Hints:
Strand 9 and strand 10 form a beta hairpin. The model is unreliable at about 5-20 (pLDDT under 50). The protein has two domains: about 15-335, Ribonucleoside hydrolase-like (Inosine-uridine Nucleoside N-ribohydrolase, Chain A, Alpha-Beta Complex), CATH 3.90.245.10; about 345-450, Sandwich (Immunoglobulin-like). It is of the alpha/beta class and about 450 residues long. The protein is globular and about 65 Å long. The N and C termini lie far apart (about 45 Å). Helices cover about 30% and strands about 20% of the residues.
Amino acid sequence: xxxxxxxxxxxxxxxxxxxxxxxxxxxxxxxxxxxxxxxxxxxxxxxxxxxxxxxxxxxxxxxxxxxxxxxxxxxxxxxxxxxxxxxxxxxxxxxxxxxxxxxxxxxxxxxxxxxxxxxxxxxxxxxxxxxxxxxxxxxxxxxxxxxxxxxxxxxxxxxxxxxxxxxxxxxxxxxxxxxxxxxxxxxxxxxxxxxxxxxxxxxxxxxxxxxxxxxxxxxxxxxxxxxxxxxxxxxxxxxxxxxxxxxxxxxxxxxxxxxxxxxxxxxxxxxxxxxxxxxxxxxxxxxxxxxxxxxxxxxxxxxxxxxxxxxxxxxxxxxxxxxxxxxxxxxxxxxxxxxxxxxxxxxxxxxxxxxxxxxxxxxxxxxxxxxxxxxxxxxxxxxxxxxxxxxxxxxxxxxxxxxxxxxxxxxxxxxxxxxxxxxxxxxxxxxxxxxxxxxxxxxxxxxxxxx
Length: 451
């Protein structure tokens, strides 16, 4: 039976491959805290989900962390060479994995210096020029820039465009760029956004009045079940018996108050945010997903949102509530590095009311009307059995009223349409989890609004 499902899935694969993937460009301060290497190792087993347009080595470490101002592009290349050794096995699972040669071609050198005084005439770098070239590329998709570090290279690119092009051309350029910034590492966000206030910008950073460890992005390793970040978990699922790429994953970093001191990956939420998995919706930071949830403030950019999870208000919960899912997903992909297709697990494909696209399903109804949901057309590429979990995510749509009763029985559910205020929607998340090893979860977000 499993082989039959695999044959059917293989027949559909050419159709699935036609979907456009998100474009991402990463600037990384690799060479300081090893969590950058951790995030890049994980990214390597997700290259099939993205078009990776740039891997820019920016000033290494955090300000003051290192004795010298340097960049470390060789560390990026080392990880790609590890990926190169498992690439032949990865493409047995998905032909969309990016070739190692392509990845090496987009490794670029940024500035070893950081700060607003490094922005302006004569400050161009290979990295800043590459950002401009990729944003100018004839492509209808936005360029999603993930700032592990290296705001300075982005700021220089924006400065050059603003000062060498017409106002119309500058605004056209800005409209093609989306930025996810981890913690304002170069400490120039205030000047950068003041200079470019129409930029789509997410700043994941704890408020200045709070402990810096309260930032949303830190939910990747803080809060929830932290045992999933332990060295033992890494040994079982990444480091041992998973090929040369897994062996490059650094085993120790600073994670306090997480007691394990192993997995941190503080930069992973920046690209998690743009991962189209049926849950995330990159057009709407307020919807939430693996990369966290963010709300637009009066200044015009998006910052950390707080959610309640298991009755605890914690901004980090917008990430760690999904940790069990994304860690099992990572573990499965590391299995792909060494196992044949039939010996590994693959995520279910979720379909609700005939919609199996990764974009949200939008449903409109009138108050008091019964809304029906049917996910019985959901499939599993391995032929595994799967279960269904229907979850309201009220904060995502700004709904603050009592949740309607959801009548759910396996693949089918129904509810009475509540009365919604203008501009408010109710978000229902369907999780479909298979019984493979490790168990994997597919998602479908349903956005419910008033007719």
